[in-house]
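[User]
Protein folding is very new to me. Any chance you could explain this protein sequence and its structure tokens? I have pasted everything here:
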Amino acid sequence: MTTKTVIILDACVLINLSNVEKLDILEQISNIEFLTTEHVIMEITNEAQKEKVQHCITTGLISVVDLTQPHLIEDYIKLNKRLGKGESSCIALATENNWIVCTDDKKRVPKTIFDRLGPNHLLTTDNLLDLAISQNIISEEEKTEINESLKRISAQRIAAVVLEDL
């Protein structure tokens, strides 16, 4: 019996995959168990994105794990002083269980993961797409299209924020 690798997903990855209608890729990737936390789900404020993620949870594609042990809650609180709630919950659980964290955060999160778990415990949306390519789930061309879509969505979001500030 092969044991599955556990990857705990942060909000930014779930939002990205939701935005490009590719959460189904997770279902097709073999030998991986995907988890997230209630803290991550609370960070997803767009109702359409939240519905898509909730569907993945309801169907069992993604499992939700909770911080229930006192030492995990303590670690979460310490991490949350400098990181977001979702990232803090993912890192606290990953540290305890030697799991891989999948996040697109580029600020303090990668260094925290490297310091606690090492570089082999950090993945990004792009890495998940590479994994999907290696398992013949998507092609290189599809990955390029997905990344282009993500760039367009990001540019639209930035433009909307700039216009709001005018």
User: Anything to note?
Assistant: The longest strand covers residues 32-37.
